[in-house]
């Protein structure tokens, strides 16, 4: 075996410093993130978790610079590593970073210790114990970048699939056999009915105190209505033990009651309906009501 002599022209490579190694690692992380990035609404997004470095802030700045130097037009990358908290710095930065910072604070509520913002293209967020929560932290960061990269919608344009409340009321009322106040009154006075029938007042207490009520009606405020009448609910009324109940809902003017009655129908109470015109129409029809007793103070406040 013959070994050729080493040429005197060859010079040994200069010794690599720790800074050289850190720069190489930062370049490799940046290249990996760029190559594996997802494209969402024209924005490249990526998330990577790394081990702790002795100088996390400086290391993250190296990665950020390497990513920026790769000449990607629009991007939002998150590199997560552990390290000491950073101090807060209120400098301004781009809209993508603003959105992702706010979402990160919401996702990691109680864990964000500080934010160091740069006026150009990145910020550093200090999150307590990042990476220690198995499965959650990385998934949460991906959710942050995906939501932040979505193009903002015009706040004045209704989202697809939405509808105005007037159209919603029309659709709901098409599923109800609504009653006029006189019809509801006659039904309640029937000596024999096929199912237990109840008139239900869903108005708030202040409105009942101001306007009066209907003798014999059940007072169930709107925010607990479904729980009180769902036979499957642990909070149901004693009378709500069957699905054939005849529930006639009323509010002040007959709008909220339609939505409430339809909600009861969706629970399986198919006989639920509401009263056209609400309490105001009942009162205008001169049907029996409870007259609110006003004190001298309340009468004075109305004068």
From TrEMBL:
It comes from the Eukaryota. This is Unplaced genomic scaffold GYMLUscaffold_65, whole genome shotgun sequence. InterPro entries: Rhodanese-like_dom (IPR001763), Rhodanese-like_dom_sf (IPR036873). It holds the Pfam family Rhodanese. SMART domains: RHOD. Residues 193-291 form the Rhodanese domain.
């Amino acid at each position: 075996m013959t070994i050729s002599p080493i040429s005197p022209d060859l010079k040994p490579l200069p010794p690599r410093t720790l800074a050289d190694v850190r720069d190489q690692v930062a370049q490799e992380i940046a290249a990996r993130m760029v190559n594996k990035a997802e494209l969402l609404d024209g924005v490249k997004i990526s998330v990577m978790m790394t081990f702790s470095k002795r100088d996390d802030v400086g290391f993250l700045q190296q990665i950020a610079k390497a990513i920026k130097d790769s000449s990607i037009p629009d991007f939002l990358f998150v590199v997560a590593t552990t390290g000491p908290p950073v101090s807060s710095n209120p400098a301004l930065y781009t809209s993508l970073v603003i959105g992702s910072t706010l979402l990160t604070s919401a996702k990691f509520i109680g864990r964000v210790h500080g934010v160091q913002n740069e006026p150009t293209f990145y910020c550093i967020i200090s999150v307590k114990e990042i990476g220690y929560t198995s499965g959650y932290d990385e998934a949460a960061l991906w959710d942050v970048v995906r939501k932040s990269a979505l193009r903002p919608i015009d706040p004045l344009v209704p989202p697809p699939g939405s509808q105005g409340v007037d159209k919603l009321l029309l659709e709901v009322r098409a599923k109800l056999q609504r009653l006029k106040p006189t019809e509801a009154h006659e039904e309640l006075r029937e000596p024999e009915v096929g199912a237990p029938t109840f008139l239900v007042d869903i108005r708030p207490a202040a409105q009942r105190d101001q306007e009066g009520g209907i003798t014999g009606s059940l007072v169930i405020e709107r925010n607990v209505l479904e729980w009180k009448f769902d036979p499957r609910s642990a909070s149901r009324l004693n009378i709500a033990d069957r699905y054939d109940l005849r529930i006639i809902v009323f509010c002040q003017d007959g709008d909220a009651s339609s939505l409430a009655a339809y909600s009861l129908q969706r629970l399986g109470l198919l006989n639920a309906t509401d009263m056209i015109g609400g309490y105001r129409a009942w009162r205008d029809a001169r049907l029996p009501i409870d007259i609110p007793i006003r004190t001298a103070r309340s009468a004075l406040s109305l004068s």
